[in-house]
User: Fold these one by one.
Assistant:
Number 1:
Amino acid sequence: MDAGPRHGAHVTEKQGPVGVHHTRVEWVDTDAAGIYHNTAVVRFVESAEAALMRERGLHDYFPKAPRVRYEVEFEAPLRFGQEVTAVVELTRIGASSMTFSFEVWGEEFEGRPRTRAAHGSYVTVHVADSHRRSSRWPGSWRAALTT
């Protein structure tokens, strides 16, 4: 379930390109108590990033943009069945790296209000050769992400 805001999940005060992903916490995302695994956040965030790249026409982005740094702060649990909104923003594009910030929100659930469950940032680098060395972002990618 990708695309625009819903359930009060409006994207505000963002400066750079934004990707949004809506989903639900599934059983596979949880421990036996029905609370999400920390690794689910990475999947939710990557889905929001994929939505951004699809929207910008960068369909070959992921094989060429590995993560080199990832930082997350976990603030609140997400529960089995709860709707989730992940928002990713491109905050910096350098010569060969990009920095993204993200937030993962648990929507209102079982009488609990909408709450930010996690936030953080990560860095990707562009690799264009089989030796996996960083290289400059293609001009067409930069244009797609900055206009």
Number 2:
Amino acid sequence: MDQHKNRTLRLWRKLKDGDVEAMGDLYDIYADELFAYGMQFSADKGLVMDAIHDLFLNLYKYRKTIAETDNVTYYLFRCLKNNILKKATKGLSLVAYSQNHELNHDEPSVEEHICAKEFENERAYKLAKAITRLSKKQRKALSLRFTEEHSYEDIAAIMDVSVQTSRTIIYRAIKTLRKQLYLFMTFFF
């Protein structure tokens, strides 16, 4: 067995034992490869990135029940493909529902529009509030990555950190934001 495979298997076992750092290390090792692989199934970069982040969040969330594997790469790639296809299928069913809704000529009521707008405003407020709770370093890294669209290598150079550290900062910031928004969504509904 080669050194890379040994390392990823050790990290996999640590992840299953609840080691968050191991999950971050696996993310750092595989994020770029997973992104390139995911783009084969969807041209939507945002959908692919969401699927990757969901994959790692779910790995940690369900760590006690995930299977043992002797090929971490294959496991991650297969899970990512399934996540992307689920997200794409969900999007298609929403489009089909929307088209069907239009065919029935059912227009949302004024109240439904107002409620939807209030919900969007509240979600935007909660996101902005959650962003302010991030560290200055996390906010800067997110801005560099998603607003200015810098690569992880560029972010590492700008922030004077390693590439792995730049990925970890962004991963943890996104994880925090998702958790905050998840709490908001479960409370709101």
